[in-house]
Write a structure and sequence with these properties.
Radius of gyration: 22 Å
Largest sheet: none
Strand content: under 5%
Oligomer: single chain
Shape: globular
Amino acid sequence: MTPAVVTLVLFVLLFVLVQRDLVNRGLAMMGGALLFLLIGSSEGFYSLKLAFSAIYFDALALLFGMSLISNCLFRSGVFHYLACRFVGYSRGNPLLIVVLLTLSTYLLSLAFTNLSVMIIMVPLTLIVCRALSMDPAPIVAAELITSNLGGASTLVGDFPNMIIGAAARLHFDDFIGGMMVPCLVLLAAVLIVFQRHAHIAQARIASDDLTTIQTTVRAQSPVGPTHPDGLDRYLLRLGLSVFVVTLFSFFLAQLLGVRPALLSFVAGLTIIVLGRIPPQELFAAVSGGDLLFFLGLFIMVGGLQAAGVLGGVHAMIVALGNGNATLSLLVLMWVAALLTPLLNAGPSTAFLVPVAQAMNVTFPGSAVWWSLSLGVLAGSSAALSGATAGPVAASFMANHLRSLPREEQVTGSRFDFRSYLQWGVPVAAIFLGISSLYILVIT
């Protein structure tokens, strides 16, 4: 077999193992990277130098810094504190609670990773839905999709954009200008779609139930009883200060000629030094598993490129585009949307970034990157396997349903890979339609 066939088969087999949770994803990808290097060296098409050049260190630095900021704020208890506040602010109005839940998910996802946000929002949603005797599944689905939207709106909201920013040398304000407007339009579409799906109870929540919900949320906070207000004010001040300074510096990065990744890395080091992270939690705080996963992934994708696999994908897209810039970008978007449910958002982005770089030579400008980002966004919303937070949300839902008495279980509240498709596939189709119009306008 040729190197292209061997590397592609190994890549697919490894991802099957990872997607089925049969192996540790970080260690599996590092093992795959080592295997690619051994095959590449023996066949003479992939060297250690090429592997090193295939790593997007900027993306890893962004993930490192933003994960630590998110961890610091989580440990401060501020997310749980805000959850209690807006539940109280709603005064028991179910529709207002649902709007607050989805919009809060979007806003948090602008700056924090989807997984971090969903870990906070899903338990809160389940508590609220149980008090309202309503089906939580459509609400959790809407939150997962709006989390994807928030992450796609900025450079630091999700890892696919971090990879794209590192590969294309794009800055924070580039993503605000190129992705925020279409994502806000898509957010409006999501709210319209889920208004029909979500069965909202008409009665208000009683004040006693509101108090119970808030007490339960406070009990889940990582802040211990030594902080009666539910906030560790030292960690809150530290996390907010580092976050605000880092966010502000992102806007000035291009003017100052500094890479956003460097700023994020410095922010992460600041949290490590001042953030009182327990040593046993440090690996999780820096998203160590994800760092290993993507480090190995970058090396493997570099091996696929060296073996000629990605050149074939590029040639296919160009052929389907027939030399037309707009059509080629649309093909790239749709290929990304189809690939993402199979590989997950981050890996599919890493797989297609070299293809987008090759296309960017023929069709210069930022539109190729927005096509890739919007395609990955649609694909990650289509199926639970498309987003890292998807299986986590499904696990929360399964544990929640098992804990309920039979008489409290809501008919139709299943939230697994198959049942999610009833929401994800139509929304992904709407995303692709609106995103295609956007690409037509800007090219």
